[in-house]
Target: MarR family transcriptional regulator
Amino acid sequence: MTTSSTPSQEIAEEDFLRLDRQICFSLHAASRAFNSVYRVALKDLGITYPQYLVMLVLWEQGELPVKKLGERLRLDSGTLSPLLKRLEAAGLVRRERSARDERSVEVRLTEQGTALRERALAVPRRIAAATTLDIEEIRDLRDRLNRLTAALDETAWEKPA
Model:
């Protein structure tokens, strides 16, 4: 005896392929919306959203080898190097060969980069206000996204090199 699906099952299965049912698209759309909001929030600081992420790590860590910075941001060197070059040209960071290991390049904040942190303190509040979520909802969403990322990292079919 063969099993066949009913028309209602076929429709339900087809619904799985609707764009608005895809979690990946919801995340993509939210990411693009966040980028737009960040573009406005960061305009006065003179940096882009990817540059802001670099600065966040450096404000937190002080100085880091380029390799560690890339790992923390999940960026390859081909993407990270131009970001660092623009931040260096803007006088916000400095790249120098490590005294301990000549193969390694360290990234550190300049005085101007350190001073920018004070002006950046308003950015998270502006972004939070734009979401219309309360602080608990924001924390819950962040925690869920972190768990999702960890689960996907664990089950990724292709592990990054």
Summary: The first strand starts at residue 63 and ends at 65. The helical segments are 7-15, 23-43, 49-61, 66-73, 77-89, 111-120, 122-131, 135-155.
